[in-house]
Amino acid sequence: MKQTHTLLTLLLLVISINAVFSQKQYVIEDAVLECQYKLTVVKDTLNRSQVRSGIYTLRVGEDISQFYNQTHLNSMSLSVSEVLSHLDKAISTNNLSSLPGAKTTVEYLYKNYPQGKITTTTILLADPFLYEEKMEKQNWIIGDSIKMIYDFKCQKAVCSFRGRQWTVWFATDIPFSDGPWKLYGLPGLILEAYDTHKDYHYIIEGVKQNNIPPLTFYKIRNKPFEKTDRYTFLKAKHRVFFSSNPIQDVEAATGIDLSGGKVTPPREKKHNYDFIERDYQ
Q1: Distance between CA atoms of 48 and 19, rounded to whole angstroms?
Q2: φ and ψ at 237, to 5 degrees?
Q3: What's the longest Cα–Cα distance across the chain?
Q4: What angle do CA 236, 239, 244 make, to 5 degrees?
């Protein structure tokens, strides 16, 4: 009974999100390169078998690039009948993981948009947020190590960035100074990236330069973005993930009324895990 209730709750959530998403968007510029990455995230550092994964798209234009959770975008485009089909499968197989939706981070990043900045749009407690930050090129140390990834000769580079030590492998044969997430600035495309313990691990799954859709700004909810800054958002997100009363804590941190004045009950804190950026603490 409890699991059925959970499934019905998830169904209502998916349908409500689907109803308001409505693909509101606008084109930014034409794309010259598109890559697919798989991100694997360790969700509990004390039990490293608990992992989640998702497919992300990097789309590169002449001046701007975007990086987003393709799994999330695909799920927001489903019809209600398709959602019901996924729900029926989840119930019949007793497998919640078959439900549509992102299993990792829901962020849409736009590098150099506006010029010299990164714009991030995301969702927290079903509300859309937007923040801008100055583009911060990593201080890479390029090594001599070489390995092959999908027939591309890749070179190793390392850096420290926002609380994590990153190792990446880039291919000079793909002359685009970009990569997954906020990683960029090397003389070739980054094909693989991971932090010290591989809590976050990106690996390339596909590259194409023909018949690519343009870079597009996606409005992920049919309501205005709440504008904030990176530190404030990450602190609020931390409260959501680790607080016993997240809604109350986020309201205190952002000044935004998320509960409509209702009292929210406490809950059990989540497990041992931290965000990809750890410099907000």
Answers
A1: 36
A2: -65, -40
A3: 59
A4: 150
Token pair 């992300």 is found at 56
CA distance 184 to 64: 12
Distance between CA 241 and CA 238 in Å, rounded? 5
CA dist 197 and 139 (Å) reads: 20
The whole model's pTM is what? 0.79
Q: Which helix (H) or strand (E) holds 90?
A: helix 80-93
**Cα–Cα nearest to 9, from 128, 101, 93, 108:** 101
The single-letter DSSP state of residue 263 is: P
Token pair 């109803």 in the structure block, residue = 19
Pull the structure tokens for residue 240: 């959501």
E-state strands within the chain = 25-29, 31-42, 51-61, 65-69, 107-111, 117-124, 127-134, 141-149, 152-161, 164-171, 189-195, 200-208, 215-218, 226-228
How far is the C-alpha of 27 from the C-alpha of 216, rounded, in Å?
4
Q: How far apart are CA 65 and CA 178, in angstroms?
A: 8
Given the structure tokens 């497998």, which residue do they identify? Answer: 95
pLDDT digits (tens, 9 = 90+) for 105-148: 789 999 999 999 999 999 888 789 999 999 989 999 999 999 99
- The average pLDDT across 5-12 equals 44
- Closest Cα to residue 239, out of 270, 209, 211? 270
Chain Cα centroid distance, residue 157? 23
